[in-house]
Design brief:
It is a single chain. It is built from eleven helices and 14 strands. α3 crosses α4, α3 packs parallel to α5 and α5 runs parallel beside α6. It is an alpha/beta fold. It folds into two domains: about 240 residues, Rossmann fold; about 100 residues, 2-Layer Sandwich (Alpha-Beta Plaits). The mean pLDDT is about 90. Pfam families: ABC_tran.
């Protein structure tokens, strides 16, 4: 549904300095019906990517194809027609205060010239679809943050787009409302078959809703793949952020080791659970205790980050040689492990 080929965007620097490369040869494919997350720190190129997808920015080079149409090659009426396949949901819905929820939803249909009867029918469908029954005549000041975002989602779906672009749609919401909005977006994908591109810096959002994810750094794709493959690859840059390690207790009299593991086809004999790590330690003459950990099951695979406290059978911390042997064994089995400071 969405295909980017060699997408590059270079901005001239003010005052004639070195140009700014916002996007540097991005290749990406998002299949129809997927929810795909785009993550990265500020300045990674996420906003420029959105503007290129919507045709608000022309790429310096490369192609932006949505449902087979190269958005980057279009102008004028053709571009406006292609944009009808794109719905947008923003961090702040920016509703018109003078309009009710229903009239805010109807606004893009009015601009498109849809007649009053068809408009009213479509708005009624959308109000029910996003769960705003009984609130459609309220103005923005009378709505909660979650209800305002539901209006924004309905407005984005008004023209029946094939793709919904969500730019930080939950970052201004509390955790409970965030879960409700993410559940709604997933439900809409399932019911309507739309493709969703989720721009976010919140890893919890990616874990909750995304089928696949791409990490941008400096305008380049650093890692991309299905959520389960990315999360279960302890060698990848996203694994530690998707599966964060909580703080461990202090004052432990043992050697501490941080372990990132996941089911990896490249290491068929690697550990598949935290219990496997404990058993592996025992095989090397160490008594391991899990003192901290985050374990997730994604698409049936267990992935996690745990901190082990290692002692010998007498209860003392294991020796340098024993620790080195254990770390070497973990590395051979695909586990990313390092000694932590107590």
């Amino acid at each position: 549904m969405i295909t980017l080929e060699g997408l590059t965007k270079v901005f001239p620097a003010p005052g004639g300095g070195d140009p700014v490369i916002a996007l540097d040869g991005i290749d990406l494919h998002v299949g129809a019906g997927q929810i795909h997350g785009i993550v990265g720190r500020s300045g990674a190129g996420k906003s420029t990517l959105i503007r290129c997808l919507t045709g608000l920015e022309k790429p310096t080079s490369g192609h932006v194809r949505i449902d087979g149409t190269d958005i980057a090659a279009l102008e004028g009426a053709e571009l406006r027609a292609a944009r009808r396949n794109l719905g947008m949901v923003f961090q702040h819905a920016n509703l018109l205060d003078s309009r009710s929820a229903a009239r805010n939803i109807a606004h893009p249909l009015e601009i498109a010239g849809v007649d009053r009867t068809a408009r009213a029918k479509r708005v009624a469908e959308l109000v029910e679809l996003v769960g705003l029954q009984g609130r459609e005549h309220n103005h923005p000041a009378q709505l909660s943050g979650g209800q305002i975002q539901r209006v924004g989602i309905a407005r984005g779906l008004a023209a029946e787009p094939k793709v919904l672009l969500c730019d930080e749609p939950t970052s201004a919401l509390d955790p409970g409302t965030t879960r409700q909005i993410l559940s709604l977006i997933r439900d809409l994908r399932d019911r309507l078959g739309i493709t969703v591109l989720m721009i976010t810096h919140e890893m919890s959002v990616v874990r909750e809703i995304c089928d696949s994810v791409t990490l941008l750094e400096g305008g380049r794709v650093v890692q991309s793949g299905s959520l389960v493959d990315v999360a279960s690859d302890p060698h990848g840059p996203l694994s530690a952020e998707l599966i964060p390690l909580p703080p461990a207790p202090t004052g432990i009299d043992a050697r501490l080791v941080d372990c990132d593991y996941g089911e990896n086809p490249k290491f068929p004999d690697g550990p598949r659970s935290s219990e496997d790590l404990v058993r592996l330690a025992a095989e090397h003459g160490a008594v391991a205790t899990i003192v901290a950990g985050t374990i997730e099951t994604i698409a049936g695979r267990q992935v996690g980050r745990v901190q082990l406290a290692l002692r010998n059978e007498s209860g003392a911390a294991i020796s340098d040689a024993g620790l080195a042997r254990f770390l070497s064994e973990l590395e051979a089995r695909g586990v990313v492990a390092k000694e932590a400071i107590a």
